[in-house]
Write a structure and sequence with these properties.
Helix content is 30%, strand content 17%. It is built from three helices and three strands; from the N terminus they run E-H-H-E-E-H. Strands 1-2-3 form a three-stranded mixed beta sheet. The N and C termini lie far apart (56 Å). The mean pLDDT is 88.
């Protein structure tokens, strides 16, 4: 991480700064010499796999069958 980049410079060179971040560089943006923000590469999220948890848990058939008593128990009324 190098010296902070002034806000005005960052504003005029945003595209180039994002390209540097994509390559793994961290960039600090400063306003009046005070650091206020940091651009960092985003973490790569694992690819989602539909059905990955299939068969690992069961939802009861009466899952949505609430009664007035259930509401009173839940909300303490």
């Amino acid at each position: 991480m190098g010296n902070p980049i002034d806000f005005y410079e960052a504003e005029t060179q945003l595209s180039q700064l994002l390209s540097r971040v994509e390559l793994g560089e961290e960039i600090v943006i400063a306003r009046n010499g005070m650091p206020v923000a940091r651009f960092v590469p985003m973490a790569v999220l694992p690819k989602r796999t539909p059905g990955r948890f299939k068969g690992q848990f069961v939802i009861a058939n009466d899952f949505e069958d609430f009664t007035a008593q259930d509401d009173r128990d839940w909300y303490g009324a």
